Amino acid sequence: MATAGRSSSGSSGESSNPNPDVNPSPVPAIAADSSLSERTEDGAASVEAIAHKIQESLSLNKRHRFWETQPVRQFKDLGNPSLIEGPIDPPTSLSEVKKEPYNLPAPYEWTTCDIDDDATCTEVYKLLTENYVEDDENMFRFNYSKEFLRWALRPPGYFKSWHIGVRVKASKKLVAFITGVPARIRVRRDVVRMAEVNFLCVHKKLRSKRLAPVLIKEVTRRIHLEDIWQAAYTAGVVLPTPLTTCQYWHRSLNPKKLIDVGFSRLGARMTMSRTIRLFKLPSLPTTPGFRRMELRDLRPVTRLLREYLSHFAVAPDFDEMDVEHWLLPRDEVVDSYLVESPETHEITDFCSFYTLPSSVLNNSNYSTLKAAYSYYNVATKTPLVQLMNDALIVAKQKEYDVFNALDVMENESFLKELKFGPGDGMLHYYLYNYRLRNPLKPSQLGLVLL
Q1: What does the pLDDT look like over 252-295, one tens digit per residue?
Q2: What is the domain-level CATH number for residue 391?
Q3: H-assigned helices in 185-319
Q4: Per its record, what are the GO molecular function terms (predicted)?
Q5: Residue 260 lies in a domain
Q6: Which domain holds residue 342?
Q7: Which residues are catalytic?
Q8: Coil, strand or helix: which one is 432?
Q9: Residues 6 or more apart from 339 whose CB is under 8 A from it?
Q10: Do residues 413 and 290 share a domain?
């Protein structure tokens, strides 16, 4: 799941998954308290420091009652060398998995949301557009398109039963939503069948009904029915216990608009004209052989991506079907570019980004902010800085307002040089029913969740 916020230079930082105990709404606080964003010498967020401070700041009755009952790494386990890596609870027999859905409050009922059905997809879109994650100051809210939702929720082998909604019995109005999609994620040397859990959303008027824990338990039950016992998810709040903590960085492409809507601020001693010049980009990509990915590129791109992702502690285990679904370009959803050597026609480099606009709230001049999010990038012959500069150029050509990137994989190597600014919120990655002995640095993570 994801959240909207702004950066310290004023951009829209993303994250997801609320704490159903402390705040049952899917809108966690995004602006990171400076005391919760300590950095170690190598630049990685100190998960131990964050966990310690969050525990100190919570009163006893607001600690993570729900998550303390779940098979996730607990704060008290930090630094315990006796705990082994791997699944926390062993899989049970499928016959022992609860067959009936969890009970909802009397006025509500479960529904399975068929994203292929246009009316249902429109309902989901409307629920998310009006109630999903927004920043603390209520200036921006995610605006996932219906095409994006269909892409995000229908990967190879997906289960319709994992697209779960809650309706009001009397009116049939959709008031809550949560999803899972299947994935193969490699942790160290083990490829694990997992679910990626996302889009937890409860209608604003029902945030006191404590629907979020029931939604999480129900999607977990349905995942278990498919003999899958692990999951990955992200959150903008600290839960027990982050696999790693990442930061969003933001690169202005349309600085005047970003400043006009309050997404960015005019820097000290900077004029608007100087700011526009500062972020100006060439009109065309500069790398010879840089072009948009096509269907014929599936095999070499898959080979390039698999080799690159093998270097990270946690990363997806993509095959050609996965690459076709997740990375073959779809207009206004996902874009991928590669470098084909003019001499040998070898595919040597690859970059990609997906499209996630935000609604601009309470602004008379603008209604939407068009944002590109860095996805998977592989540089073998072209310097990564040059490759990503070309990605910025094509995003600017396509009229994006801002280009966002997490400091995962090798992204940190290009952020400052390409004039990205750090965000004001943190994105925490979690594994369900799987423990790593120590938290990872963001640079050890090869996984991007939507």
Answers
A1: 999 999 999 999 988 888 999 999 999 999 999 999 999 999 99
A2: 3.40.630.170
A3: 211-224, 255-260, 272-278, 298-309
A4: glycylpeptide N-tetradecanoyltransferase activity
A5: yes
A6: 250-425
A7: 450
A8: strand
A9: 287, 288, 289, 290, 347, 348, 349, 350, 381, 382, 387
A10: yes
